[in-house]
Amino acid sequence: MLMFEALQYDFMRNALAAACLASVICGIVGTMVVTKRLVAMAGGVAHAAYGGIGMALFFGFSPQLGAMAFALASSLFMAWVTLKRQSRADAIIGIVWAVGMAIGVLFADLTPGYVADLMSYLFGSILMVTKTDIIFMTSMAVLLCALVPLFYGQLLAYSYDEEFARVRGVPVARLHFALIVLTSLSIVLVIRMVGLILVIALLSIPPYMAERYCRSLAGMMVLSSLLSLAFSLSGLFLAYRFNLTSGAAIIIVAAAAYLASELWLRCCKAARA
């Protein structure tokens, strides 16, 4: 009943729409990120984007535009590193991660009369979701839903066996760069709701849980999206009811569900033994 009352407010309707769209985006992109073991890279992209937010505040343009520019630049660099220098990829990703955050903090400190609430960019805020954000998120969700069926065979081969994919003529390098770019764009679009720091959890927890129950990539994407939606709606309800930060509430719900799922699986395994 309380949630229905909340829907009389524009910001809650925007947040609800964003939750549904973010669930589709994170369900699809997160499945590929988890399957390809690119969670650390996604975290690097998310934190590097903070440098763009700090620069945007200093020079007076849109923080989301700055985040997108930094995220794309860092993601392309890290995609190249993981292809060419795999043995040192983790160290370079860590460097990009730290430098991006440092640049953001320094430019935020140097911004004259700086009053913007950076906490909302770090941890998310349902008040920040606008109709423009909804339009961009809808476009991304539609694009992903169109691309996955079109390239499903190639994505399947690329996800589980790159050598086999190359033998079959799959353009592995192009798919790798495309995945990283889509991941960076998805991160920037979702930070309005869960923030830069916590977006990585929404990209990884639902897909990892789905992986434990699904036997196909498509099934994993669908279940991951449904789990993301359940966590997002539950988190938004808690955030509204108890005046909490939306991103933190969503991730706590997701983490609690993950722990419950792991306990259930272990109990089932013990019962069969």
Describe the structure.
It is a single chain. The N and C termini lie far apart (44 Å). The chain is globular, with a radius of gyration of 19 Å. The protein has helices at 2-6, 10-35, 39-59, 63-84, 89-110, 118-123, 131-150, 152-160, 162-167, 172-194, 199-213, 217-242, 246-272. It is 84% helix and 0% strand. The protein has one domain (2-272): ABC transporter involved in vitamin B12 uptake, BtuC.
Short description:
By secondary structure, this protein is mostly helical. It contains 13 helices and no strands. The protein has one domain: ABC transporter involved in vitamin B12 uptake, BtuC, CATH 1.10.3470.10.
List the helices and strands and how they pair.
Blueprint: H1 2-6, H2 10-35, H3 39-59, H4 63-84, H5 89-110, H6 118-123, H7 131-150, H8 152-160, H9 162-167, H10 172-194, H11 199-213, H12 217-242, H13 246-272
Helix pairs in contact: 2-7, 2-10, 2-11, 2-12, 3-4, 3-5, 3-10, 3-11, 4-5, 4-10, 7-10, 11-12, 11-13, 12-13
The helix tally amounts to 13
Strand content: under 5%
Q: Share of helix among residues?
A: over 70%
CATH architecture descriptor: Orthogonal Bundle
How confident is the prediction overall: mean pLDDT? 88
Number of strands: 0
CATH superfamily: ABC transporter involved in vitamin B12 uptake, BtuC
Features:
273 residues; ABC transporter involved in vitamin B12 uptake, BtuC; mainly alpha; globular
